[in-house]
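Thought: the user asked what Signal transducer and activator of transcription looks like in 3D. I have the sequence; next I should run the structure tool and report back without guessing.
Action: structure_tool
Action Input:
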Amino acid sequence: MAVWIQAQQLQGDALHQMQSLYGQHFPIEVRHYLSQWIEGQLWDAIDLENPQEEFKAKRMLEGLIQELQNKAEHQVGEDGFLLKIKLGHYASQLKSTYDRCPLELVRCIKHILYTEQRLVREATNSSSPVGSMMDSMSHKYQQINQAFEELRLLTQDTENDLRKLQHNQEYFIIQYQESLRIQAQLSSLASLPPADRQLREPALLSKRATVEAWLTREANTLQKYRLDLAEKHQKTLQLLRKQQTVILEDELLQWKRRQQLAGNGAPPEGGLDILQSWCEKLAETTWLNRQQIRRAEHLRQQLPIPGPIEELLNDLNSTVTDIISALVTSTFIIEKQPPQVLKTQTKFVATVRLLVGGKLNVHMNPPQVKATIISEQQAKALLKNESTRNDSSGEILNNNCVMEYHQTTGTLSAHFRNMSLKRIKRSDRRGAESVTEEKFTILFESQFSVAGNELVFQVKGRVPFLVPDKVLWPQLCEALNMKYKAEVQSKRGLSDENLMFLATKAFSSNPESDCRNMTMTWSQFNRESLPNRNFTFWQWFDGVMELTKKHLKPHWNDGAILGFVNKQQAQDMLLSKPNGTFLLRFSDSEIGGITIAWVAENPNKRLVWNLMPYTTKDFSIRSLADRISDLNHLLFLYPDRPKDDVFAKYYTPPLSKAVDGYVKPQIKQVVPEFATANHDPASGNPTYMDHGASPAPLSHPHSYAIYPPIDSMLDGEGEFDLDDTMDVARHVEELLRRPMDSQWSGPQS
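Observation:
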């Protein structure tokens, strides 16, 4: 199926070449609807030049037609009706075309598959990581489908053997009844005269001996048939277990893992259609074998023959029941997880699904699913099959839902649309554990009846997510990068240099240190404060994500923000650049802050200056791009990009002219020591305040001393204090909003 998925992405001439492969000899619709089955067959195992291989080709043709007929039977609804007719027509057409020359069908399909693979390989370059992954996936899917084909053939073989056994046993019973009739005739001779008895007795005795000898031989033959059939069933069940392990413990667990990672920002886990089709095939094949084993048991009961067959059949019946039980309980999954953080009195949704519900007819007796919230300790006890006395750790409203069968998709699911956490019961916390560290899980429970209550399964869904005490740094890097890209909604993730910066911050280590084998504990991650700070590593990183997501996303995507650079690194980078070169880095000292570092001349020497960090509060007043535009001393974004080339497209357009004698105030950012006092109004880019045409000059006493002394705006390390500079801007805004007669000289407008 993976080849067909890739083939559908072809374009241009490659697409035309692919389309030309199909026609009346092999409709493209057959390729589409049977893609999984077609790619799972061993077409290359058939030698087209060997006439003896025609038997294999005939079996392939029969399998193809059977798959088409099965697909047609499952179509429902108006659209399904038309497709049902079309697929049935294709089945008849292919049978008519290839019934007398099945090897030609194999030749046709081999040519199609070879050409598609070549076109896909040429288009995607199979040496690339994506191409290699798709090749690997295609190979994996092919192995799974090949195993299903082997199971189908084994099941068909045992079905034929079972019918043969039944036929032979029925004939054996007839002959046994004949032996009883002969015995009755011999017994009746005792009432005849001696002469008549002597005349008839030899023939009856001879006939009885012949029949009894046949019965003895046939009883041994039947016993051998039964043992052979049991051995074949053993082989089938072994392969079923192996296939079930691959699908449930590999493929389904991988899907669940992808679902977990999707909660941290990984790509969506993908659909369940392929997994459901595999699980349904498992269910169908397992159920057929269970029925065969039960029929074999019925034949044994009908004609008991001493031997080990009774014990063998008991073992087979137990094994097949275990397989069905594991299949049903493992395929009860949470398709849509509830949110990772729940709030009381807040509605949330979830969806649970049974991947084998349609095949096992569970929907004939619609099961009800119940959701309860339990603690991590209770969840662990359930995993160990320990009793929890049906305790819960809270109350969920609207926590019962009946599973519904959707014919169009063949899915059996329950949609909890209006659940709400009414209350939560917390345990006593110890030590430094916070409320947010206490974990709970929502447990979904139901009871499924299979085969008219013949088998009843109790199912529970949701293994709690395991949180290790510590993880290797490379693993954490992968998670941080995944989370960052998802939160910021950006394709630009964290570079190796960014991750090295984070390692230095997390471990307080030298930048040259090898962190690949270092581990980070949960306590280091989000419980212990960073050195000389009052916040944790995660709190700092989460603040960076929030700031970037809300205010800096376009600049991060443009590559304008270096971000993960410390003060010393910024100084080393800027001192080698021309004056006015600046860069943007996330603040080390404040959660959710970003600062501008720039190089400029000092009376004695060149220095790198650092503006006090901006936060969300600041950007809610004026954007980063506009602030950079305000600061005329910022000329080049590191390393050498003119700032207007990078940020101009984000500048706020100039305000319109005065209307009805009023002007609109505008806040502008200044760094007083770098401000130009003699502003040229014609420049269109004033440093302090753009007030447009005013009714009178700024001569009122209130218009002076609106800036505090420069020294008061610097921190102990010579950094500009943004709060003070913003106080200036707010002061200007306040002046502009006061009544005109108290602020301006001249008549009121």
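Thought: the tool returned a structure. Summarizing for the user.
Final Answer: Structure for Signal transducer and activator of transcription predicted. The radius of gyration is 40 Å. Residues 126-130, 677-720, 722-726, 735-749 have pLDDT under 50 and may be disordered.
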